[in-house]
Amino acid sequence: MKNEEKMEFESHMKTKTVLKQSVFPADIDKVYSLLRDLSTLQYIAAPYASFVPLEKNEDMKWSPGQKTAFKFKMFGVIPYGIHTIKVIDFSKDGIYTNEGNVHVPIWNHRIKLTDNGDGTTTYSDEIEIGAGKKTIFVWLWAKCFYRHRQKKWIRLLRK
């Protein structure tokens, strides 16, 4: 299959969506500040996933237009290829990334933050997943992964 045909196929594959929402015990400024750090992603993803940047950048902060490639491992040990994250939007109003790898070409992630006005923040993850015939399995894994991530967020914020 030619690259153009493959891209056409991938753009028309059926996708599934994961939606997970929690109230975090911290104000929106604290949550947003932590979101900007790669180390937060690495902490909340473990042990379900590990993200090791191909290019070392200890002080990396997410920003719009940024594209970063990671060695991705499921459960920290199963190599799952190079995962690329392209930041489309990154603000307190919302974060949106286009992500993917050869196994999961569509992984569009939207994070929404809502200031509750009482020192808490409503945080939601919405992820569109497209992985061809593997979509259902990736979607099931992602449901567990994002439930885990939000629990780790709450632990992090309570420290």
Explain this structure to me?
By secondary structure, the protein is of the alpha+beta class. Helices cover 31% and strands 40% of the residues. It has a seven-stranded antiparallel beta sheet, covered by helices on one side. It is globular and about 45 Å long.
Topology:
Layout: H1 3-12, E1 16-24, H2 28-35, H3 38-45, E2 49-53, E3 67-74, E4 78-91, E5 94-100, E6 106-115, E7 121-130, H4 135-158
Antiparallel strand pairs: 1-7, 2-3, 3-4, 4-5, 5-6, 6-7
Brief summary:
This protein has 159 residues and is of the alpha+beta class.
What integer is the average pLDDT? 91
Shape: globular
Largest sheet: 7 strands, antiparallel
| Widest sheet: strand ordering | 1-7-6-5-4-3-2
Low-confidence stretches: 3-11
Beta-strand residue percentage: 35-45%
Q: How many whole angstroms does the radius of gyration measure? A: 16 Å
Strand-pairing-aware structural class: alpha+beta
- How many helical elements? 4
Write down the secondary-structure element order. HEHHEEEEEEH
Q: How many angstroms does the end-to-end distance come to?
A: 51 Å
Secondary structure tally: strands: 7
Helix content class: 25-40%
